[in-house]
Amino acid sequence: MAPVCGIVGYVGARQAQPIIIGGLKRMEYRGYDSAGIALWTPDGLETRKRAGKLVRLEAELADRPLPESRQGIGHTRWATHGGPTDQNAHPHLSGDGRVAVVHNGIIENAAILRRELEAEGVVFRSQTDTEAVAHLLRRALDQEPGLAAALRAVCRRLEGTFTLVVLDAAQPGRIAAARRSSPLVVGVGQDENFLASDVASFIEHTRHAIELGQDQVVEITADTVTVTTFDGDPAPVKPYDIEWDLAAAEKGGFDWFMRKEIFEQPQAASDTLLGRIDQSGRLCLDELRIDRAQLRAADKIVIVACGTAYHAGLIAKYAIEHWTRVPCEVELASEFRYRDPIVTPTTLVVAISQSGETMDTLMALRHAREQHAQVVAICNTNGATIPRESDAVIYTHAGPEIGVASTKCFTAQIIACYLLGLFLAQERGTKFGDEIAELVADLTAVPAQMAALLADLGPIDALAQELVGVESVLFIGRHVGYPVALEGALKLKEISYLHAEGFAAGELKHGPIALVEPGLPVFVVVPPTGRDHLHDKVVSNIQEIRARGAKTIVLAERNDAEAWAQADHAIPLPLAPTLFQPLLAIIPLQYFSCQMATLKGLDVDQPRNLAKSVTVE
Ligand code: F6R
Asked: Which CATH code is given to the segment(s) 454-599?
């Protein structure tokens, strides 16, 4: 896994240092292992950088304060080329210290560039791929005095993915940046402008932003923003206003963003439903700007995604096939593109991504588009690369998700997929209008059911207390309960560092049941009672593991007496149709992992080795 770094640039009327450090703090959730800052001063560029978290950089700034400056760049780095040391932290300077560069992504031809520069006598001070850019830029400035022009010349030589933000000591009041595949947005203020990998870093200063496209260079001063292509042609500028406010990017009284985001699920779910269903229960997905005839002609749906988004896709498959009768495959984006998948112009590809920047998912969608498939993105981040490159997008309106472990976006992604599935059923006539209206009524009841569930999580606190010392936990489920089990296990792995596995309950006897020993906690997601034949099979599975000494933690409808008879711990769920149950059943599992990690004293929002968006392969 490789990561995304955080980048901030500021030029304007105010002191740059607090704005840059504040901006980096708002991106801490993305994961990083060193940090640095460079400021412009009349005597040249001044930098400070430190391995470790921002507090170490702040301590360094307290020991060796920087002079006042109204212009600078900052960076949080997640190490790829070269370990997380002070030397490898960004910004990187040219040999004479005239230019400073921060970078997110991977320069694939860095080794060749380095050899070439070293042959010319350049001495490198770090092991990073980024430093070559600083030296190249310095050289380019001798040929092309303008900062943006010199940066464009450098970009034309770079291979790989990058966001670069650069300062030149000889060009006060100006910052330039370049973007290929990695994220970068411009924040437009009053007598000040910002650059950042994420709007969260400048949302407290301005809600006006400009999206940058692929292979574009931007130069900002306090009152201008100039965007060009790598070839120097003017590029159209796409301004937009950020809908959410600062409060959404703050913890609001919760100890962790993750916990806050778990509790935001009713809101995220109802905001994602909002405006997409009319009074009579018909779906109106106006944003789905794909020719209706093409939607009707689609003969296969392929969902591509990674991690939690992939689990959302696995759940959606059950509903989409059931409602539309169109075959639906779900594939890990990282596998999809390397196996020559069968994708044709009549395939509808659905790319699910919270960040909209996940490189594997982006590459999968590019591959699909090359085969002339129609691509719909399901995304939470306005203007991100994945929606920009798709034929259409259904945004999840979950608000910013800051905790590294995805929670509210998971449920919002399922809802967005369900809206798409119901819309396709409506268009293709595979469900009658009154059937769709009935399903819609059940779906719109979910946010209130989520809220009821969230109001009663006390028993999970007690359960986490009891289980905090365990080393291994299993999760089982059938049908849509199976991906819920996978997601419950993923949450526990990534936040609590526990060995956790999710299994299809029916598969247990084919191997995994050998893992069951006395005292092993096993969470079981039990389908609704009533006409659902799956229910009894899962109850039998509980009996099988219980007979072998497992401690059963059973999630089932609150009136499910058969399931309760097999439960060492009971987690009651509101009554909902089978296909909608995952939207509820996942909540106690998310909360359990958050609670376990808290009790273990771990950093819930920034688990080790993980980054929020994974913008390189
Ligand atoms: C797990 C988690 C990851 C992401 C995955 C895809 O909690 O957050 O597994 O789901 O990296 O990220 P997006 O949705 O941004 O494409």
From this structure: 3.40.50.10490
* 551 labelled catalytic: no
Alpha carbons 282 and 275: distance in angstroms, whole number: 11
* Domain 6-249 identical in fold to domain 454-599: no
> Which residue type occupies 78?
W
DSSP 204-259: TT-SEEEE--TTEEEEE-SS-EEEEETTS-B---EEEE--S-GGGGS-TT-S-HHH
Q: Where are the domains of the chain?
A: 6-249, 257-444, 454-599
Residue with the bigger pLDDT between 480 and 385: it is 480
- The two tokens of residue 433 are 């209008």
Please state which architecture CATH assigns to domain 6-249. 4-Layer Sandwich (3.60)
Name the fold adopted by 257-444: Rossmann fold (3.40.50)
Rg (CA), the chain: 25
From the CA of 613, how far away is ligand 1's center (Å)? 7
Buried b / exposed e over 135-174, threshold 16 CB at 10 Å, is bbbbbbbeebeebbbbbbbbbeebeebbbbbbbbbebeeb
409 classed as catalytic: no
Cα–Cα distance for residue pair 607/91, rounded to 1 Å: 25
CA 296 to centroid of ligand 1, rounded, Å: 30
pLDDT tens profile 547-565: 999 999 999 999 999 999 9
> Which atom of ligand 1 has the smallest separation from the CA of 386?
16
For residue 312, the Cα-to-chain-centroid distance in whole angstroms is 13
For residue 51, give the nearest of 24, 77, 27 by alpha carbon: 77
Are the C-beta atoms of residues 529 and 581 closer than 8 Å to each other? no
- Cβ atoms of 331 and 318 within 8 Å: the answer is no
Phi, psi of 569 (to 5 degrees): -130, 135
Taking the CA of residue 361 as reference, the ligand 1 atom at the shortest distance is 16
pLDDT tens, 379-432? 999 878 899 999 999 999 999 898 989 999 999 999 999 999 999 999 999 999
CA nearest ligand 1 atom 16, residue: 353
DSSP three-state, residue 170: coil
> For atom 11 of ligand 1, which residue has the closest CA?
307
Q: pLDDT tens for residues 199-258?
A: 889 999 999 999 888 899 999 999 999 999 999 999 988 899 987 777 777 887 788 999
pLDDT value at position 1?
28
Q: Quick: pLDDT tens for 337-368.
A: 888 899 999 999 999 999 999 999 999 999 99
Rounded CA gap, 318 and 131, in Å? Answer: 49
Taking residue 133's Cβ as centre, other Cβ atoms within 10 Å add up to 29
What's the mean pLDDT when you consider all of the chain? 93
pLDDT digits (tens, 9 = 90+) for 428-449: 999 999 999 999 999 999 999 9
Residue-wise pLDDT tens digits, 175-199 = 999 998 778 999 999 999 999 988 8
416 lines ligand 1 (CB under 6 A): no
Which candidate in 25, 260, 317, 612 is catalytic?
612
The pTM assigned to this predicted structure is 0.77
Query: How far does residue 460's CA lie from ligand 1's centre (Å)?
Result: 24
407 lines ligand 1 (CB under 6 A): no
